[in-house]
Amino acid sequence: MSFETDWQMISERSGDAMFFEKVMKKAKTEAEHDGIFLEPAQELGLASHVAAMIRRGREGEMFTIEDKALFDEVSLDSLYLAARICGMVSGIHEDEKYLLSIHFETAKLN
Fold it and tell me: What is the per-residue pLDDT across 16-34, written as a single tens digit (0 to 9) for each?
């Protein structure tokens, strides 16, 4: 499959393609502003996570992270960026930022 085909499928899975595009545009813009540039595969991984967050928010599905110490090595910059993006999606638990931060932290290694 192509990047565009994968992107379209992920967007549709979110249940709100327009909102998905808005969140992803903000995520990419904010990341680049912070000097984080996503490889295409990383961008699709982030997109898949964002689509799932949107779906979880809409359906009221929440999860929490029991051991936040697992994320001790994630930089505060990545956590703050993830928190800003998560703040766009209503109905999700604040712990979502920990999982989202991994996408940004990994992309920093490029």
Answer: 999 999 999 999 999 999 9
